[in-house]
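Sorry, any thoughts here?
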Amino acid sequence: MESTGTNLNVSHKITRALTARQERRLADFLEDQFLELTRGYKKRSEPSTHLPTLPLYLEAAQKILAMVLRIPPVDPSTSLRTAYLLRLTNDVLASIPGYSADGASIQLLLDWLDDLDQAWLMVLQAQVWDPENGPADLVMDAEAAATGTRSSPVTQTERTRLRSLLIGGSATLEEWLTVTRPTPGTILEEDEDEDDVGSLNDVENMLEELGVQDGFDELFWRTLQELGLGGVLPSDEEIMTASDVSMN
């Protein structure tokens, strides 16, 4: 999936629900993809792994993201798209800290997280993903509407889960950066100076040097705004709670 950009391309395309057979085939395919993603991550340090680096991991996750977004937001498929996107969000945010980082992979990571942010905005707004044109408004034909076909909104439970994932994930990424200390073109091991670990100023300075401070400052801003959190910073207690809960 290519980055959707900030301007949503709204088109009008009739959208229908998946058949039961299509849902089964899609579920089987995605389960296999998630299994491969998890297996590659767990074996990331072994010579036989197919996902030894963060860029390769994100490339594999991107394929799953693109497929999940193609699930039409029409019941009974609506909840399927939300459930798989929650699962992918949790898996990726939990796995990123398992990799080392350099300047190039940090920018790639920010691009991927921006795609994820826009993907969630689509889901929360019940939009359709068109591979050629990007997000599009959901349009159902008169016959489908007459027979009660609908698109159920994301539930409050799912919204709460998503909020915890994004807040907790952002806090975990910040902690990861204090340990990896990436610099342009260099993969670093864990910093041995314990006095520096956890220093927010050091992290901000490092991000400024990489030219990606703004990207981290704006992580998931579209989704958080849609969830009613735009411009509202979570408290330290909320971040700690989200960090404990979101990755379980």
Q: What stands out?
A: Confidence is low (pLDDT under 50) at residues 2-12, 183-200, 231-236. Residues 12-246 form one domain.
